[in-house]
Amino acid sequence: MADKIAVARALRELGMLLEVQGENPFKVRAYENGARALEDLPGGLDEVIAAGTLTELPGIGKALAAKIEELAGTGRLALLDRVRSELPSGIGDMLRIPDLGPKKVAALLAALAIGSVAELEKACQEGRVREVKGFGEKTEKKILEGIHRMRTASSRVLLSDAREVGLQLVRALEATGLAERVELAGSARRWKETVGDLDLVAASVEPGPLSDALAALPGVESVVAKGETKTTVRLAGGLSVDLRVVPPAQFGSLLHHMTGSKEHNVRLRGLARDLGFTLSEWGLERLEGGAAVPVRTEEDVYRALGLAPVPPELRQDTGEIEAARQGLLPADLVTLGDVKGMVHVHTTWSDGRASLEEMARAAEAMGMTYLTVTDHSRSAAYAGGLDVDRLKGQWEEIAKVQEKVGIRLLRGSEADILETGFLDWPDAVLEQLDVVVASVHSRMKMDTAQMTHRIVRMLELPVFKIWGHPTGRLLLEREPYGLDMEKVLDVAAASRVAIEVNGDPHRLDFEPRHLRMAHERGIPIVLSTDAHSVAGLANLPYAVMTARRGWVTRGEVLNTLPAAEFAARVRPG
Ligand code: DGT
Ligand code: CA
Ligand code: CA
Ligand code: ZN
Prior knowledge:
Number of helices: 24
Distance between the termini: 49 Å
CATH topology of the largest domain: TIM Barrel
Structural class: alpha/beta
Strand content: 5-15%
CATH architecture of the largest domain: Alpha-Beta Barrel
CATH class of the largest domain: Alpha Beta
Mean pLDDT: 94
CATH superfamily of the largest domain: Metal-dependent hydrolases
Helix content: 40-55%
Radius of gyration: 27 Å
Low-confidence stretches: none
Bound molecules: 2'-deoxyguanosine-5'-triphosphate, calcium ion, zinc ion
Number of strands: 17
Number of domains: 4
Shape: globular
């Protein structure tokens, strides 16, 4: 399948490199426009190519269409390879310095033969850049600041973005036929909320050709380091990828080492030593005599140390090793297959992009047996929140769609938690709903005492509610709001409430450490996607894996229950 984003990146890179070479600005802009048209394409690139309709996209003519087909078909573009080879290899990195741009890069290359960020930094520090026509002392200073900013910018990415790219790389390396196995390791395999870099582990007897294959993949912008068995590349977009290649016999122990977390590994190594072993990326050995203990799979590492195998998403050094040692790791952690209903879903009635019927059919096709439709309430005006009349109109549509689909539809609402802690519906309406998700969408900057008070009031309301995206965090964008979590969860334990694990990759809220606190208090959990489109329903694994990271078991999750039991447990009235 052609990756339209990767094709767009290649076009954009080509445009910028051509501009460095002094190509005509109209041609240069055509590549940028083409890249944008691909990024905005609603469906897949393959279908457009198959239909022969590429040239119907805005800004894509015959010549550009041919290049897109070349990239989509072969993963390469001869012209891009040629232009890259004609320029110093560090030019791509220079173009990422904020406010520098192709024209200035071209001038620096022509005047001072500067072809990398390191050379540029040195030239600025030595005051040589200010001598170039069009540059001055001020520009020199700005460039140095730009280099600094580029290096210190938070470079972590969302788990979902990292996993998408990482799994594509795994498939591409598998397709070379050079490796017996390729796996994603590191934080992306542990489903950590954000990812610093991707780590790939391969079993192969041809490490050199496999590393070459990685370096030649279309999304790869530069090779940072290349050795016999370790390669690091940087992708367009800035994400780094570490690849380690070992012979098949060492794959299990290397996969374990590279999966981490570092803290988990350190503790496990300590335990190994106490038991008379040394554990390293190369395997497990007896301290005395140095005899190797065979480790075929990474589970063998745990078994050899007398532990139950610990799943990757639990390897955070938050007590999992001690629990595994005592046989106290939960055996019935919730799984994707356990989830029977979609609970927090938006439609075109508020700010969703798909109709109620489309969402119902899509959830049914995923194997769900019920769907609770939870569009926004009135005070979420920015999100098209419903008033009482429109809510009743929605109930009529729910009844109509219910005639046509097999999945059971429940009447829900995502009710705003008002500043006072009350919900955004009169009691008479709350009583007629099947499901209420209660969420904060406004006034998030209250201080901790005020917010705690607001949430406590909401929890103590006599209706049953599911507390939606409880901390309000947006990963890499917005901090959680201030809450006295111990106090709030104490109140929740005594109230009619379940806590949501929101699988929207920007939220992943409730987080694992708080889920453990909720578990201690016996508070029920609901796993949701907060989907605003059919595609959003596919985020369910993110809710499941976040819950597992918080040791949530099947029995604690209300939407593992069949429809009738679920509805009985969550009925507000
Ligand atoms: P990230 O990339 O910041 O999201 O987090 P990770 O966990 O992917 O960390 P990374 O990429 O630095 O290293 C990948 C794995 O390699 C890590 O999870 C465990 C292992 N590792 C790295 N450095 C060390 C170390 O100093 N000691 C031990 N025991 N393991 C390490
Ligand atoms: Ca990593
Ligand atoms: Ca790494
Ligand atoms: Zn929502």
